Amino acid sequence: MDTVTTVSGGSGLVSGPTRLLIDGQWVNAASGKTFETRNPATGEILADVAEGDAEDVNRAVAAARRAFKGSWSRVKPNERQMILLRLADLVERHFDDLALLDTLDMGAPLSRTRAGRQRVLGMLRYYAGMATALHGETIENSLPGDIFSYTLKEPVGVVGAIIPWNGPLSASVWKIGPALATGCTVILKPAEEAPLTPLRLGELCLEAGVPPGVVNIVPGFGETAGAALAAHPDVDKVAFTGSHVTGQKIVQASAGNLKRVSLELGGKSPDIVFADADLEAAVPGAGMAVFANSGQICSAGTRLFVEQKIYDEFTDRVAKYGSNLRVGDGRDPDVQVGPLVSAEQLERVTGYLAIGKQEGARPLAGGTRLIDGKLAQGYFVPPTVFAGVRDDMRIAQEEIFGPVISAIPFTDIEEVIERGNATTFGLGSGVWTKDVSKAHKLAKAIRAGSVWVNCYQAMDPAVPFGGYKMSGYGRESGLQHLEEYLNVKAVWIRTA
Ligand code: NAI
Ligand code: MG
Question: For a pLDDT cut of 90, what percent of the chain falls above it?
Fold first, then answer.
């Protein structure tokens, strides 16, 4: 196996490592095994990637522990800051290649992956800033005599980070960034569908001066590499992003050493459109709340609640908007909607299209896989809008993870609060109205980690993101994100 793969990206060649990054070295899997990663737009094999499993995870955890106990623990906050700033500069310099690698490996169009620039660089520079801003507190206690108390914030230790494939670059930065800022060490397990960008980011980490063992990257499958990391007795914390089903397995696996866990899971987010909304903004807003990244976004606004008196007009307009989006190979800069990530996801999403029709929902747009010409080689599903959806239908309850809107009518605000919250998930939500009192009322009443009013999917490194209910716990971005990677120690000193 080559250490580096070079893949043709349409707009040029892009290359990156394909082996495991352990203790600062690129190594083969102990088993010698590899797996293929493919371009979902064409089905072509992009690279053979080393397939890490439990033995490799053991080696990576040992390296991460050595680094954590050793020299990394003496690296000052301002040095960690400089490493993060250098990493940000390198990511900036190579951003177009990283965006192209994401496009090739998981299918999101260049129009989307390139637009992630500000977000990814903003995250790295935010964590860099935070590296020197972390601190404990002195706390007045009420004990008799002279006894002084204060807190220390200490890195939690060795972190296992398990990420999905729907945004490989940003998901990697969202785990490596806080780990480096707080002084943790990390073993990143990319998704088997899209390991190339995380590995290239690992290469940039080394170039930025991240010491050996501080960032390790072990691609491999969930049931082997992922499960080994989640269960490992010498891992102090697991940061997981992915499905709620796997999240439940992670929690169970964590019980052995009661490691800390943070979970960023899926959703079935309500997006609520009132008749008084600015429909010019709400139509594309509600459309892209689901069609962006082909619906492969955890907080996609897939339950579209539309006030009855505009239901027909609005759903027709969203359907037209979706039908006019350009679907195709994401290397074409004009493409707005790329393929689904894999044959497995294609099967899952087309399965839900069939279920929706059986349940009696009516597709106003899309509804069947695209197989014209070259599209047949990839995993393309067009923007789909189902009308006539009832709350109890599976397409209104289950996470589809495809470009599929389930449009549901409602008549009044109390009712839509009740029905919007009637889900096991609680990640995102949207409200479209010009009435500020309705906006505030819903912002309070919706049980979800984010409420977007007259916008959708706004994200910023300083603003926390995460779930209620089965969408998980813990927050990413913002001050609370750093706390997830820190322990608080109370120190008592009798001074007399
Ligand atoms: P997944 O949750 O199984 O995979 C996410 C990550 O977890 C991958 O790195 C995978 O290798 C790892 N993993 C899988 N099983 C594991 C285990 N037993 N222990 C430790 N790690 C494990 O999601 P998958 O299979 O890629 O997609 C299935 C469905 O999950 C999607 O259709 C979608 O509904 C949902 N999903 C939601 C995501 C979100 O951001 N909310 C992201 C990815 C998937
Ligand atoms: Mg899986």
Answer: 97
